[in-house]
Specification:
The protein is an all-alpha fold. It has helices at 2-23, 33-43, 52-74, 82-101.
Amino acid sequence: MRRTVINRAYYAAFHSARQALRNRGLDAAETRFHRQVWGHYLTAEKASQTSESAWRSIADLGLWLQEERLRADYDGDASWSGQQCREVVRRARMLVAHVDALPAAPSR
């Protein structure tokens, strides 16, 4: 059950972040797309000067969540306490809040 919490929290954050990139004309290829999504935020290539730190915060949170999701999916010995699960969900919500707070994508 706790592995599912980790997985769903990650994917909720990931899809929010990916859609925001799509709205800005960026996307990821069909392979290694998780790494590419977080890479776009890490390089902050579409960020304004005022939003650059928010983009990097999104990348940091996304990469941390991805590591937790990978452990949940592939490490049979990994376990999480209820408090740790709440922390994962809290960080996923924080990532989505950062994405929602980004300046609107320019109109095409």
